[in-house]
Amino acid sequence: MALDLGLLFGRKNTPLVGIDISASSVRLVELSQVTERTKTAVAEFRLERFATEPLPRGAVVDGNIENIEQVTEVVRRLWKKSGASTKNVALGMPSASVITKKIILPGGMTDDELEMQVESEANQYIPFALDEVSLDFDVIGPALQSPEDVEVLLAATRKEKVEDRVAVAEGAGLKPIVMDIESYAARGAIDRLIAQLPKAGKGKIIGLFQLGAQNTHISVLLDDQLIYEREQAFGGQQLTQDIVRAYGLSFDEAEAKKRSGDLPENYQKEILAPFLENAALEVTRAIQFFFTSTPYTRVDQLFLAGGCAIIPGMVEAVAGRAKVSTSVISPFAGMKLAPNVREKQLRADAPSYLVACGLAMRRFG
């Protein structure tokens, strides 16, 4: 393999924290497991700690780390602030940076034979030389159509993109154990929440909209399976830019006032309302794309996550436009909380921790 850290799929039960490096901030989550998953019950977790630190503007752009020194310093500060004791971390790669492909291979091969076969197959799907990529795979299980074969998930990304994140973690004195794909980490967190729905959400088509600073990632799920995925260039920074233009503030000032609500009286009507309407249009446009590019004609439930999801009025705007039951989700719903966890802060920020929570869950497989 090109880079062996247990990366992209990783090992189970190593103590670790999840660290999500997004366009606007870095978030950390550490979980412990109270009970394990059984056939009749989902695993129970306890939130031990969570923390966030803002990133300087331009340090991360479109998922690429543009300033390793700045991001490293933020991660170092975040880890110290969190009080985490383990230095083992799970990191995420932006979905757009990773090529994934499910392939069918003969069963009964040794690990070495399987690795050689995966590398051979990878040449068909990866538009780069293999020595330029970090490549990993995970055996999903017997193939549905031919149980004597196995279904394997292949994942590959440019080596320098992995190395940038590894350099940030190591520069902050941490040890990267797992490199997951951000959308997979988010789905790991969302599976818990779907399991809490009536009949565990069976037969329900669920749209997950992760509304970030720069982009919105859309995943549509049915019975534990991803049936559609897309990314749109829309996020909360557009509202910040609107505030900059309207009131002559710097970007950082506008971002701070957006969070505190310390803005002129006309903000709600003239700036926020048009932004919310635009956000709702983006969501309904994404749903239409889903309908036109798949056999499906309905969505039963919308889940909103990400920092943009907690903007006042977002749920109402999306539900009103999409005509679909809509809610903002917390990845920590139903979890026990450690004594040091600040509940008020958690309630306000929880939807932005979906990826970090999913990364932290990688400790438990």
Automatic annotation (TrEMBL):
Which parts of the chain are coiled coil?
A: none
- InterPro entries per the UniProt record, alphabetical: ATPase_NBD, FtsA/MreB, PilM, SHS2_FtsA
What region holds the SHS2 domain?
A: 16-190
BP-aspect Gene Ontology terms? cell division
Record SUPFAM superfamilies: Actin-like ATPase domain (SSF53067)
Cite a single Pfam family from the UniProt record.
Answer: PilM_2
Task: Tell me where on the tree of life, at the top rank, the source sits.
Answer: Bacteria
Query: What name does the UniProt record give this protein?
Result: Type IV pilus assembly protein PilM
Q: Which organism is it from?
A: Glaciimonas soli
What taxonomic ancestry is recorded? Bacteria, Pseudomonadati, Pseudomonadota, Betaproteobacteria, Burkholderiales
**Gene field:** pilM
